[in-house]
Every structure is written in structure tokens, then in C-alpha cells.
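Fold in C-alpha cells:
===
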Amino acid sequence: MTIMNLTRKDITSAYNKIKRIARKSFDKKKYNDSLAKISIAAKLAYYINFIYTDVELENMLNDISKNIIPKPADFISVENRYVFVDSFGNSKVLALQYLKALISWDVEILYILESYSKIEESKEIRELLNTYSRGTILVVDPELETAEKIKLIFNRISDYKPFKILLHITPWDVIATTVMYAFNNVTRYQINMTDHAFWLGSGCIDYTIEFRSYGCTVSLEKRNIDKNHILVQPFYPIIKNDVFQGFPVELNKDNVIIFSGGTYYKIFGENDLFFLILKRILEENPSAVILFAGMGNGRNRLENFISSNRLEKRMMLLGERKDINEVFRNCDIYLNTYPFGGGLMSQYAAYNAKPILALTKANAFNNDLEDIVFSNSDKKQQICFTNVEDLLQETKRLVNDREYRVYKGQQLKEGIISPEQFSSNLYRLMDTGVNLFPIEKKSINFMAFQDWYLDIHNKYSNKIGYVIYVNFRMLAFLYFPKISFKYFPSLLKLIRNKIGI
């Protein structure tokens, strides 16, 4: 039996069915189940990004909030007292940047770690706050049911009487969003880290804090957030000086090391254009070697590309590196992934004064590196090339001219916002609501973006099938037959691996 690829209609049909199930549970006052189904629906929307907000889900979260928390918050806020709700719980995202800024203001902070599963990942965050005399930490008990977690967080925040609340949450977080619907008396800020994607909570915030024009455009055009409620706050990379783990082979001192990396799906699509670029770079630059640090599904495709083109001595895979800053320190050039770029990786390159090679298109999705790297608007310069030949020509110059490499890298390093600038700008934003950095609308091909995500899911990912099966089990085959049968071979493989067949 051949299983056809999933279409946008298949995904939206499943999404709407899950919403209907969530509504039925709500009508029966089964709020925990309703919230679980809302979270599943949000994950589907996030994985494909066919929408960016959903008024129906927001209204349902608001209604659930009123039923779980019958009385909304009613207190007089204590000035200079902040709540930071975190469901990511690690330093790979933006928690440390914001918490360090709050600490620099010498304000009181209640940090709420919503997910106990993140207790180890959040170690660096908790150590920071434990050494700060005005910091308090609440880790939510994992044994509580969802509704009880919501009540606990609501009561703790109400007792704290905060001046402002910052949300640093996953796109499918139903706990924090349900809580926030009960806090109309406090200014609430969403730190929009996943700015290119769907997320819950657009109806329970007062401001969204964006880090670039791309996210501003999505919030304006797709989330219907008023321009006066969009704040622009670029960020800087958190640098860890880990011990360098080295490279897999001894490289020649004359080699020019080009580094690239990210989740493997970022280099798939557009008729494997990124693979063609890799091949031509190595063909046209004999002294260059390429190192790629990747994670997720798809490594085998890159391995096959290397072996079929006999590039084993010129291109090597590093896997996932904990010492990522040291890798950048020891390379010469950074090659951004395509068709989906890496913003944080580009910041690491700039911090280490390494020139960046990047390809984009006039209306490409998520590749506007200028906003991410040149956070200081007065120093902004073009990074991305819109033509492959121009990119390859720049590659030759960077490979062959060391002085030019150093010059271009230093320009990038000078463009990144400093921790001190981050802190002062954030204070001004939250104090006045006035942007220091301009909001520039981008031309975004939203349909192409959706098509790319769907193509990646059909070819390389089983996240949707996995999420549906884990939450619906055998009923998944009844409710979502096409998605379930497409996922079935992966499920069998998973079971066989577990039982050792």
C-alpha cells in the first residue's frame, strides 16, 4: 500500500478536528483534556505554519481561564517587581539575556520554571538567580494536573504583585497562556523567540517583543497585533568558553576552514541548491575544507552527498557540538544554511569576527541576517547575496585574501549589540513603549514558507504523526487515518528498536 504525501488540507483537517475535540471536552467541563488538545493543535500549526494565530483557540483559553480561575487578578502592583515565566528552561534561547538585563536594573525577580523536565537544562539560569539577592525561583511540581499548575502559578504571581510579566514560552504552552488571561491588571510581554511561526498567546499579551523586522511583519500581517504594541529588541549571543574538542582530522595549516551547521532540515529543499553550493565551493577553492555541525534527521543525506562526490577529505561532519563557540573561534569563514538560515549561528560568527557567506532571495523566509547580526542600526551592511554566482565569487575572495577575511569579520563583530546596550534598550522599551530600532515591513512569501515546511515534513520528519499517535494512540487511526498510516512505518521501527528485533 502506497501512502500519499500529506497535503495542507490533510493538516488543516486534522487541526480542525482536534479543535472540535478540545471544544467538546470544554463543554463537558473536562478542562485538563481540553487544554491538552489545544496544545496538540498548536503543535500541528507550529510544525507547518499555515496560520500564525487562532482567535478560536485564544477564546477557548480565555474561557478555560475564567472557569479554572473564577476571580481575575486584583492587586496593586509593587514597582520594580518582575515575573519571568519560562517553559524553555535553557540558555540556548533568550532567557539569560533578559534575566541578566533585569538583574542589571537591580529589580526584584520571580522566575517561574514551568516544566520540571527542564530542571537540569536550566541549571545555568538557576545558578544566576541563586547568586542574586533579589531573585526568587518557583519550579512547578510535575505531579500536578494542568489545571492545578495553572492555579498554582496564578496564586504565586498574585501574591507577588508584579509590576510587569515577561513570557518566554513554547508556541504550544497552554499553562502560561491560560494564566495570563487572568492578569489584565499587569502589563504582559511576549518575548517572541519563534517569530517565524505559529504560537499561542496573542490574545493575552499587551506587547510582543520582536528581535527583527521579519517577526514584526508576521505579527502585523498575520497576528493582527497593533504596531504600537510591537517592540523591537535585538539580542546578543550568550558565549560559553568551553574546552575546544578539536576537529575529526588534522587539517593542513594552509587549509581555509569554512564552517556551517544547524538542524539538517534547514539545508533541504529548492532542488538541493545548498548541496550544489557546497560542491562548487570545494571545486573552485582547492585550499578550502568544509566542516558541518548538524543535528536532527537527515545526516544520512549529507553523508551520501559526501561519499558520492568523493569529498571525504574536503568535507567532514562534526555532529552536535557543545563547544560551538570554540568551533567558530577555530574556523575562518561561516557559511549560513539555505533555504532556512541560522540566526544565532550567524551571531556566533560575528562575535568571533568571522565573515559570513549567506544566500537569500528577495522574498525569502527567515534569511534577513542583517537584522540579526547588525543590531546596531547605524552600522548595518549587506550580508546576504541574492545570486549564487555572486556568493561563490565572494567565497573565492574570502578564501584567497586573508586580510579581506579579517576586515569583513571585524565589521561584523562591531555590529552586534552589546549586553549593556541590550539592557539599556530593554529598559527604555518597557518604560516608554517607544522603539529605538525602526520597524521595517518585509515582503514575505508565506505560501512558499508553508510549502517548504510541508515538504520537509513529508520527506524527513514524522513529528505530526508522532504527536498524534502519542496523544490518541489507537484512536489516531480512526480520527486521522492518512496521517497515522503515513507514520506507521516509523512507529514499527521505533517499537522494533525498543524491543531489539
Q: What stands out?
A: The chain has a mean pLDDT of 92. The two ends are 23 Å apart (CA to CA). The chain has three domains: 67-238, 256-416, 464-501.
